[in-house]
Every structure is written in structure tokens, then in C-alpha cells.
Amino acid sequence: MKTLIDRYVLGGLMLAASFFVARPAQAQPVWTHTAGACVIDENSAAPSTVQESELKFEPAVLGEIVARCNVVNPRDDGQNPLWKVLEVVYRDPDGALLPNQVRVQLKRVTNAGTHITIATFDSNAFVGGVVPLMNSTVFAHVFSFSTGSYWVEIRIKRGDFAGNGVTAPSAFLVRLRQ
Fold first, then answer.
1. Which helix (H) or strand (E) holds 17?
2. Which residues pair with residue 140 across a beta bridge?
3. Does residue 157 fall inside a structural domain?
4. In angstroms, rounded to a whole number, what is the distance separating the alpha carbons of residues 91 and 35?
5. Range with the lowest mean pLDDT among 2-6, 163-167, 170-174?
6. What's the pLDDT tens digit per position in 143-162?
7. Residue 129 sits in a domain of what CATH number?
8. What are residue 30's phi and psi, to 5 degrees?
9. What is the residue range of 112's domain?
10. Which helix (H) or strand (E) holds 12?
11. Which residues 6+ apart lie within 8 Å of 42 measured at CB?
12. Minimal CA–CA distance to 104: which of 173, 158, 53?
């Protein structure tokens, strides 16, 4: 009997001590959205097409495509994510030149209706090419899904037929991560 009581006491002490043991930080969830699944703005100046995940121009079309992706909190514990990086997979055939561009902005609207831009990614800050590239921009922001809402706006501009005349600027995916 004494052995059984000792085991219960020892088990209780171990359980109590487990609350004070340092636990590793939980990995932060990543939010990812394909550009092709975003909503195309009805006022976009250029006809667009979606090929699997890629949002791009119709052939031989110049102009601008605007699309918006709603950002949701992937955490199910009531906490806000600690994202600090806006990452984009895109194609910009002329790179830093002005005619073609992929510009992605992380935006927020507060419960009071105030709009702010949190982060801006600009493909013209990087080397271009005809193959998809992944680049990112770092930002500082404390997310609060209880006091506002977030979205990503993708703007793809095509001002000329750079590259081989067929490859147009396009967006494949956007990601928020720590």
C-alpha cells in the first residue's frame, strides 16, 4: 500500500514539474497562396489567364493585372502569427527595367476602416529572367486578426515584350513566413 501511495505522490510531483520545464517554441505556421487562386480585380486593364498556379497575361497583351488574396490566420490557438517575410515566386523577364514588373503588397484594414500598407515587394529590385524566381522582402509588423483584416495585392505590369517576345511577367505564389 505504501508503495502505491509513493508512486502516486511521485507521479503527481513529476506532473507538476512538467509545467515548469522549458518547452521548445512552436514552429510558426506559414501562409501560402497561389496567385492563380486570387481574385482578379474587375477593373484590371489587361486580359489575364491562369495556368495552374500562374497568373499571367493573355498572349500579345500589354497593360496591368491586379489581383487580391485574402490572408487568413493559420493558427487555431487564438494567437497571431509572427510573420516577418513576404516571399514571392514570379517571372519578370526584364528584371530591374521599368516596362515589366511584379509588385506585391501586404495590406491591412483596421476595424475602424483605416488602410495601411505593411510591406511591398518589387521585382524591379532583382535580376530578371524567363524562368520563375523566388525573392522576398522583410518587414516589421505585429499581426492582430482581432483588430483588423489582411490581404495581399498583386500587380503585374507588362509595358513591352521583353525577353524573347513571348515570355510575359507573371506571379505564381505569395507566402508569409517568419
1. helix 2-18
2. none
3. yes
4. 12
5. 2-6
6. 999 999 999 999 999 998 75
7. 2.60.120.200
8. -110, 140
9. 28-177
10. helix 2-18
11. none
12. 173
- For the chain, the C-alpha Rg in angstroms (whole number) is 23
* Dihedral, 94, 99, 104, 110 alpha carbons, nearest 10: 170
For residues 104 and 154, the answer to whether their CB atoms sit within 8 Å is yes
Interval 87-136: pLDDT, tens? 999 999 999 998 999 999 999 999 999 999 999 999 999 999 989 999 99
User: Rounded CA gap, 60 and 99, in Å?
Assistant: 14
| Amino acid, res. 8 | Y
Query: Of 62, 130, 69, whose CA–CA distance to 94 is shortest?
Result: 130
- Say whether pTM exceeds 0.85: no
Percent of all residues in the chain with a pLDDT value above 90, rounded to a whole number: 68
Tell me the pLDDT band of 76, cut-offs 50, 70 and 90: confident
Torsion of CA 3, 6, 8, 10, to 10 degrees: -140
DSSP 175: E
Alpha-carbon distances, residue 69 vs 8, 125, 173, 178 (angstroms): 54, 23, 10, 19
Q: How many domains does the chain have?
A: 1
Q: What CA–CA distance (Å, rounded) separates 8 from 30?
A: 42
Handedness of CA 61, 129, 34, 114 (dihedral sign): negative
Phi, psi (degrees; rounded to nearest 5) at 124: -70, -5
Query: Does residue 12 lie in a domain region?
Result: no
